[in-house]
Specification:
- The structure is a single chain.
- The chain has helices spanning 2-16, 18-47, 54-86, 91-100, 103-109, 118-134, 137-148, 150-175, 185-196, 209-245, 248-257, 270-281, 293-301; strands spanning 263-266, 286-290, 306-308.
- By secondary structure, the chain is mostly helical.
- The protein folds into three domains: 2-135; 150-245, Helix Hairpins (Orthogonal Bundle), CATH 1.10.287.70; 248-308, NAD(P)-binding Rossmann-like Domain (Rossmann fold), CATH 3.40.50.720.
- It has a three-stranded parallel sheet with strand order 1-2-3.
- Strand 2 (286-290), helix 13 (293-301) and strand 3 form a beta-alpha-beta unit.
- The longest helix has 37 residues, at 209-245.
């Protein structure tokens, strides 16, 4: 159990504690940023045939991969330690952990870029960009804003995809007998996407009257769609800004009053912060009651529902 307790403390230091977790995330972002820049420079250097600098980039890559692997091992071993401590193993808990830590991106980010040819090298860059976002609080804030509009965005993209599919089939039927550019269904889909997004490359154009009517409707739909998407995202950001300007305690109290069947965590320390992290990963509602105001604010800064009160007071419970 000593090893389990050590791993739990390590997880608290790296991922929960306000100061040390910030330093750790800053270090990870710096390593990932340098590795991404080095890949881009290395690609340009290869074009210019600067082969003498390859060992330098190889050293950076080995260091980066080592850091990613160590973080990966620490993340999952400490997560398992928390489950052992709580005696709570479930498929849902592991699935949430895989999603929250971008498991596949982690694996791809471990691949040395120099063993891949140019197009596949971009997958490593993308994976490391995703990992960079995982350690960036601002990017996480953006993701949370998008998550808050998940329902609206799901409906929007479902309707958008339906109209794209319908317009692709319609333009294919109307144009393919007369227009060589639409002999392929792929070209019809490409044209629909370009038209609906109002890009309008002009590489493929309808020539029949029916095709032009379909194009006109799709153009109008594209303009309306962009306006709707902008409205959804803007509304989400506006809600976030308003919440940040309002009194934190009032917002917190309103959210707490709306909760049903939730857990109550007494205090916010190293162990209880890990419990809160685990409950959050399992999408379970909870409230933290902390007597110390600084610790209560720390819990709020972590995105948890928390109130500054004495848990021993029955009126609070």
């Amino acid at each position: 159990m000593k090893m389990v307790d050590f791993l739990i403390r390590l997880r608290s230091v790296l991922y929960t504690d306000k100061v040390s977790s910030y330093i750790f995330s800053l270090f990870m972002r710096l390593v990932l940023f340098v590795s991404i820049i080095s890949i881009m420079v290395y690609k340009g250097a290869k074009i210019l045939e600067y082969k003498t600098i390859k060992p330098f980039f190889t050293t950076i890559e080995i260091f980066t991969i080592s850091v990613i692997i160590i973080e990966f091992v620490i993340n999952y071993t400490t997560f398992i330690a928390v489950l052992i401590k709580k005696r709570e193993f479930s498929f849902k808990a592991f699935l949430n952990q895989f999603i929250n830590t971008l498991f596949l991106a982690n694996i791809v980010a471990m691949i040395p870029f120099y063993i891949l040819s140019y197009p596949y090298m971009l997958f490593v860059v993308l994976a490391r960009l995703l990992q960079f976002g995982r350690f960036s609080k601002k990017i996480q804030e953006l993701v949370n804003v998008i998550k808050s509009s998940f329902y609206e965005l799901t409906w929007f993209f479902a309707i958008f995809a339906f109209f794209l599919f319908a317009s692709s089939i319609s333009i294919y039927i109307a144009e393919s007998p007369y227009n060589p550019a639409f002999r392929s269904l792929f070209n019809a889909v490409w044209w629909s996407i370009v038209t609906a997004t109002t890009v309008g490359y002009g590489d493929i154009v309808p020539i029949t009257q029916t095709g032009k009517i379909i194009a006109s409707f799709l153009m109008i739909f594209g303009i309306i769609s962009i306006a709707m998407l902008t409205s959804i995202i803007t509304s989400a950001f506006t809600r976030r800004i308003i919440e940040s300007k309002l009194n934190k305690e009032d917002i917190m109290q309103k959210k707490i009053n709306d909760l049903i069947n939730h857990y109550i965590i007494c205090g916010f320390g190293k162990i209880t912060s890990l419990v809160a992290q685990q409950l959050q990963s399992n999408n379970q509602d909870f409230v933290i009651i902390e007597k110390d105001k600084d610790k209560a604010n720390d819990a709020i800064d972590h995105g948890y529902l928390a109130i500054n009160a004495d848990a021993a007071d029955e009126t609070v419970l």
